[in-house]
Design goal:
The structure holds 2 protein chains of 2 kinds. Helices cover 0% and strands 49% of the residues of chain A. Chain A contains no helices and 11 strands. In chain A, strands 2, 4, 5, 6, 9, 10 and 11 form a 7-stranded mixed β-sheet that branches. Chain A starts with a strand and ends with a strand. Chain B is mainly beta. Helices cover 0% and strands 51% of the residues of chain B. Chain B contains no helices and 10 strands. The relative contact order of chain B is 0.33. The N terminus of chain B is likely disordered. Classes of the chains: A mainly beta, B mainly beta. At the A-B interface, strand 4, strand 5, strand 9 and strand 10 of A face strand 4, strand 8 and strand 9 of B.
């Protein structure tokens, strides 16, 4: 299994541009998440999904959109990039069943710079 | 240019020492606590977890202690190795939607 994969690894955007960060997992996990990590900080949850067709906001959703059309893919969309969105973005996935909590598996991250 | 270096608390130890990394959490209703290790340029990696109904859990070379009275979590690493050098984060997780809330990290530096 490849686990959680993210593309691209790096990207530089100009203010106002748009882009989609891709995330794919091959573990058949029903839960998927997007986090951002600013320098010297822990990760903050942007959006999450509990299954295909279901998404919900996390702690810092403003400026982002997501969709979950399949179990495997959970893309994150930035519509009008702003310097405040310069960060490292991590996608994660986990299994969930019967109220039990399972480990989240993280991708390698996408480093985004908005100038 | 302006430095964008990390301003994390740092714990420096010698190889072979035992390391203790501490974390204060915020939500007394959290069900589940996890320690993650993050190496430079990589995503967080699960180390060990503990449920709120426990106060200690041991893994291979690692032990997590939970003190719910003072909302404190600690990670003990025995016989620390250079490969343990990384940033360590504690996180709280709720069982409902499994959202993780991360604490501020601690950088562990292990000298040979």
């Amino acid at each position: 299994n490849a686990g959680v994969t993210q593309t691209p690894k790096f990207r530089i955007l100009k203010i106002g541009q748009s882009m989609t960060l891709q995330c794919t997992q091959d573990m058949n996990h029903n839960y998927m998440y997007w986090y951002r990590q600013d320098p010297g900080m822990g990760l903050k949850l942007i959006y999450y999904s509990v299954g295909a067709g279901i998404t919900d906001k996390g702690e810092v959703p403003n400026g982002y959109n997501v969709s979950r059309s399949t179990t495997e893919d959970f893309p994150l969309r930035l519509e009008l990039a702003a310097p405040s969105q310069t960060s490292v973005y991590f996608c994660a996935s986990s299994h969930q069943a019967g109220g039990a909590v399972y480990e989240q598996y993280f991708g390698p991250g996408t480093r985004l710079t908005v100038t | 240019g302006e430095s964008v270096g990390l301003h994390l608390p740092t714990l420096s130890v010698q190889e072979g020492d035992n390391s203790i990394i501490n974390c204060a959490y915020s939500n007394s209703a959290s069900d589940y606590f996890i320690w993650y290790k993050q190496e430079s340029g990589k995503g967080p990696q699960f180390i060990i977890d503990i449920r709120s109904n426990m106060d200690k859990r041991q893994g291979q070379r690692v032990t997590v202690l939970l003190n719910k009275t003072v909302k404190h979590l600690s990670l003990q690493i025995a016989a620390t190795q250079p490969g343990d050098s990384a940033v360590y984060f504690c996180a709280e997780q709720d069982t409902g939607f499994q959202k993780l809330v991360f604490g501020t990290g601690t950088r562990l530096l292990v000298s040979p």
